[in-house]
Design a protein that fits this description.
Layout (H helix, E strand, L loop, with lengths): L1 H23 L9 H4 L4 H4 L16 H10 L7 H30 L5 H30 L2 H27 L3 H5 L3 E3 L6 E3 L4 H8 L2 H54 L1 H89 L2 H33 L1
Antiparallel strand pairs: 1-2
Helix pairs in contact: 5-10, 6-7, 6-9, 11-12
Length: 389
């Protein structure tokens, strides 16, 4: 009981380690079986048969296969090449075992002539045909296709009649003692032994068995992988050839350009000179346009500043003239009032001393001066209005 419990603990630990490993890795990892991803690993196909290979050394996981099927729609991983190498090595090993079995049979069985061997081979071929047809009949019956299975049974009856005729020919070509011996033959597909006198049930069990059908599946898958790999390699070679041709074309074009430059150095120099000259002219044009724009902006600014200065100067000139006129007018009015005051005083003083005639003369003179003063005031006001306009 203790040993059993320890074994369970070890098995559970190994299973947990396997689960964690599967969770960590991806389908592109080298530890993953590429044949399993393509559903053609011999360890899966021949499982439970007489040639069961056991567990594969690489990781098998259906989830990884599903991930690969999804990712392969957008990208080509070329796993077909790895799977093809795997199946080729397995089939080559099977073919070597077949050749070894044939040599062993040749050593143990009695040697017969080439004519008798050809007749025996004909019987084996008919046995193989009958066995395949019977296996097909069983498959169609399991699927419920009764009409097709009946047609195949008719073909089986025809093959049986041919077999009886071939066996009669073979029996008549050799002694009865030798004919009774069991003549074996190695199956070219699965390396199993077949008897010349096997009944239909034995043939059907062999050709419809999982071992024989598994080998057929592996061989057909190998041929398909060879075709796919050949197509992909051809496509890759074409792409590589196309890229190489493009590189060679570019190199030839570069070489041609360099040769043309070496042959016509003056022309190349003139081209370079023209390019340089055009560049310099374009730069000069840009510089001129920039300078013109600067001059325009400066001229506009100077005009605006001069206009503002002239306006301010005109305003200051007008104001100064107005102020001077006002001052002169005030001064003249003060002087006039002072003169009038002095004249009035003189008149008062002289009125007391002079006669009435002189007083009249002075009054006329005063009226005349007052009239002249009003005319001067009117003239100064008109000049001031003209200056303001």
């Amino acid at each position: 009981m203790v040993i059993h419990s320890q074994l369970k603990k070890i098995q559970g630990a190994s299973e947990r380690m396997g689960d964690t490993t599967r969770q960590r890795i991806k389908f592109s990892d080298d530890r993953v079986c590429k044949s399993h991803l393509l559903n053609c690993c011999p360890h899966d196909v021949l499982s439970g048969t007489r040639m069961d290979l056991g567990e594969c050394l690489k990781v098998h996981d259906l989830a990884l296969r599903a991930d690969y099927e999804i990712a392969s729609k957008d990208q080509d991983f070329f796993f077909e090449l790895d799977a093809m190498d795997h199946l080729q090595s397995f089939i080559a090993d099977c073919d070597r075992r077949t050749e070894v079995a044939k040599k062993r049979l040749a050593e143990t069985q009695e040697e017969i002539s080439a004519e008798v061997a050809a007749k025996a081979e004909r019987v084996h071929e008919l046995n193989e045909e009958i066995g395949k047809l019977l296996a097909k009949v069983e498959q169609l019956g399991a699927e419920g296709n009764v009409e097709e299975s009946q047609k195949v049974m008719d073909e089986v009856e025809k093959a049986r009649a041919k077999k009886r005729e071939a066996e009669e020919v073979y029996r008549n070509s050799m002694p009865a003692s030798s004919f009774q011996q069991q003549k074996l033959r190695v199956c070219e597909v699965c390396s199993a032994y077949l008897g010349l006198h096997d009944n239909d049930r034995r043939l059907a069990d062999h050709f419809g068995g999982k071992l024989h059908l598994g080998f057929i599946e592996i061989r057909e898958k190998l041929e398909e992988l060879k075709r796919v790999v050949a197509e992909k390699q051809e496509k890759r070679n074409q792409e590589r050839l196309k890229r190489r041709e493009e590189r060679e074309r570019e190199e030839r074009e570069k070489l041609r350009r360099s040769r043309s430059r070496s042959k016509n150095p003056k022309r190349s120099r003139s081209r370079e000179h023209r390019r340089h000259r055009s560049r310099s002219m374009s730069r000069e044009r840009k510089r001129r346009t920039r300078s013109k724009s600067r001059e325009k902006r400066h001229r506009h600014r100077s005009r605006s500043s001069s206009r503002s200065r002239s306006r301010s100067h005109q305003r200051s000139g007008h104001s100064s003239r107005d102020r001077s006129r006002e001052r002169s007018r005030r001064r003249s009015s003060k002087e006039r009032f002072r003169d009038q005051d002095l004249a009035s005083r003189d008149r008062d003083r002289s009125s007391r001393d002079r006669s009435p005639r002189d007083r009249d003369r002075k009054d006329k003179k005063r009226s005349y001066e007052s009239a002249n003063g009003r005319s001067e005031d009117r003239r100064s006001s008109e000049e001031r209005e003209a200056g303001e306009i």
